[in-house]
From TrEMBL:
InterPro entries from the UniProt entry: CHP02241, Phage_T4_Gp19
Domain of life: Bacteria
Name of the protein in question: Phage tail protein
Short name of any one Pfam family annotated for the protein: Phage_T4_gp19
Provenance organism: Massilia violaceinigra
Length: 150
């Protein structure tokens, strides 16, 4: 595939450090891949035409993963259960995560890594008697920082 074409957004993979991408990594949607700098405004004495905007620190958003409702044997579900139902008896296990956008040959053409990711929200979308859709779960992950790898 030539780099002249914009990549498609529908062929992607998610790999967790604990599973190495071998299991439980099929998702309907991944969102929240972004980076942002927090800034502060500094007014310079004697200069009234403008203010300086200076960077203060890196701010990361949460990463959201959407997929069909998985069984309790899923490694990702087990991880979420240990975080949300573990009563903080054991420390939360953070792990690396990589999201890859793939080309038609199944090779990564863009990828992002997320350091020390762990679940902060686990939600099941609303059920409806008039719907004919797959039940969807949303998992929101916090992470320390991200890097674009390719």
């Amino acid at each position: 595939m030539s780099d002249d074409y914009q990549p498609s957004a529908f062929y992607f993979t998610v790999m967790f450090g604990a599973t190495l991408g071998l299991a439980d990594t099929s998702f309907k949607e991944v969102s929240g891949i972004s980076a942002e700098l927090e800034t502060e405004t500094v007014i310079e004495g004697g200069e009234n035409r403008y203010v300086h905007t200076l960077p203060t620190h890196y701010k990361s958003r949460s990463l959201q993963l959407k997929r069909g409702l998985a069984s309790t044997s899923s490694p990702l579900v087990k991880w979420c259960i240990s975080v949300f139902e573990g009563d903080f008896v054991r420390p939360i296990l953070a792990q690396p995560l990589v999201v890859c956008l793939m080309n038609a040959d199944g090779l990564p053409i863009r990828s992002w890594s997320f350091a020390n990711a762990y679940p902060v929200k686990w939600e099941v979308e609303a059920f409806g008697s008039e719907k004919n859709e797959v039940a969807i779960e949303n998992i929101t992950l916090s992470y320390n920082y991200s890097n674009r790898l390719t």
